[in-house]
Amino acid sequence: MTASSEQRLEEALRDVAFTVTASPGAYREVRSRWRRKERRRRLIVAALATAVVLATNGIALWALNDASPDQHIIFTDPTHAR
Amino acid sequence: MAAVSDDRPDTVEALAARDADREAALAALFHRHHLELVRLATLLGAESDAEDVVADAFCELHRGWKRLRSEQAALPYLRAVIVNRVRMRVRHLQVVRKHVEWVREDVASAESQAMVRDDQRALVAALRDLPERQREALVLRYWLGLKEAEIAEAMGISAGAVKAHTARGMAKLGKTLEGQDDG
């Protein structure tokens, strides 16, 4: 491939590229798209965090509810264990 | 442009300031490079989806902003995302075109195509018929004027492979150019 061929390719690409234009409101459109995606991402993270907290609370309440009132599952003193 | 890494503690004010910095940096990047990136996507074969591909790349950059190693890595990152997205789109279209009768889209509108000479149009058409890696290497080198290492980063391959793809692509295009010279 000669230098002139490379030059011809460069010129062809440049001329074709210059026929391509972008829409005038592109920035506003893209910015609203990335903001929407970010909001959705944060909403999903918040929903997941809430679900985890609710699930752990539920499991803890269930465990406490099922335990015998005489059995101290949180503060067990090993010296009094039989 | 804002610093990509930020050591401030995660207070509400710091997070808001970080978001504002990121938006400002992305806005500056967008206004400087958007048109060039749309043209890159078009030349790579994104056709009418070029703006959409570039918009997706900016959204991905927005999401991964904190993971960038430096501000200077933003543009190469965008190029790499665009190359990947266009490659996926072209592959998808190849499958679609096997099943549906397809009328090929021109790179730009008919009106703007009139500004391009016939031999140039034929050359770009021949470029688009090349295997994707060869086309990508040639567009990145001869339109964006990137160095081999930058092309390798954008394409996710080694510099040696870039050299091989460029040489093979140019050899094939050489035949088109010879045909034009003979005709």
TrEMBL record, chain A:
Highest taxon, organism lineage: Bacteria
TM annotation in the entry: 43-64
Keywords: Membrane, Transmembrane, Transmembrane helix
UniProt-recorded name of the protein: Uncharacterized protein
Organism: Lentzea alba
Automatic annotation (TrEMBL), chain B:
NCBIfam families with a match to the protein in the record: sigma70-ECF
GO molecular function: DNA binding; sigma factor activity
GO terms of biological process kind: DNA-templated transcription initiation
Highest taxon of source: Bacteria
Protein name (record): Sigma-70 family RNA polymerase sigma factor
Occurrences of domain RNA polymerase sigma factor 70 region 4 type (ranges): 121-173
CDD domains per the UniProt record, alphabetical: Sigma70_r4
InterPro entries: RNA_pol_sigma-70-like (IPR039425), RNA_pol_sigma-70_dom (IPR014284), RNA_pol_sigma70_r2 (IPR007627), RNA_pol_sigma70_r4_t2 (IPR013249), RNA_pol_sigma_r2 (IPR013325), RNA_pol_sigma_r3/r4-like (IPR013324), WH-like_DNA-bd_sf (IPR036388)
Family assignment from sequence similarity: Belongs to the sigma-70 factor family. ECF subfamily.
SUPFAM superfamilies noted in UniProt: Sigma2 domain of RNA polymerase sigma factors (SSF88946), Sigma3 and sigma4 domains of RNA polymerase sigma factors (SSF88659)
Lineage, uppermost ranks: Bacteria, Bacillati, Actinomycetota, Actinomycetes, Pseudonocardiales
Organism: Lentzea alba
